[in-house]
Automatic annotation (TrEMBL):
This is Uncharacterized protein. The lineage of its organism: Bacteria, Bacillati, Actinomycetota, Actinomycetes, Propionibacteriales.
Length: 162
């Protein structure tokens, strides 16, 4: 747990993300500890001990999480959206462009995104988390995937199609 010292700063954090920020800070404080000292022995495999990437407004993602999602995802609209975001990392992708390119109705993709939330809750426990950031502006929805997550997604998809 973080304590107040002369090296501590106040940082505004949206209330809905406070628990994630607290967990992230705790993970940083324990970076120099061994897995045994943290009590992590037997809970983290070498494959899952990847680097983490913070997806804004969503949370931390690892390569293992991305592989798990790619293996468990059965929604073609969401898959098309994730594929498009991965093909254009760090750029905002317009949801309607993906719908039009894939012949997917807006209602279908909206429903699949809801199902994605349920899937990630089940796969990773706790709150729903997506490997992409989203925002609404000018009557449209936009999605963006960090470059590292995009690289993991493309590798996972290539592996699952082989």
């Amino acid at each position: 747990m973080t304590t107040w010292t002369t090296d501590t700063v106040l940082l505004p954090v949206p209330l809905k993300l406070a628990h994630r920020v607290a967990a992230f800070l705790e993970s940083l404080e324990g970076e120099n500890e061994t897995p045994a000292a943290r009590g992590d022995v037997g809970t983290v495999s070498d494959a899952d001990a990847d680097a983490t990437v913070l997806v804004p407004d969503q949370g931390l993602w690892t390569e293992g999480m991305v592989r798990q999602l790619a293996d468990g995802l059965t929604y073609p609209g969401v898959t098309a959206l994730l594929d498009r975001c991965a093909a254009e990392p760090d750029r905002w992708v317009v949801k309607s462009d993906v719908e039009q390119a894939g012949g997917i109705s807006p209602i279908q993709l909206r429903n699949e995104l809801g199902a994605l939330s349920k899937l990630t809750k089940r796969l990773f426990g706790g709150a729903a988390t997506w490997p992409m950031q989203w925002r609404k502006g000018k009557g449209k929805y936009y999605y963006r995937m960090p470059a590292a997550v995009a690289e993991w997604w493309l590798a996972a998809r290539a592996g699952s199609e082989a």
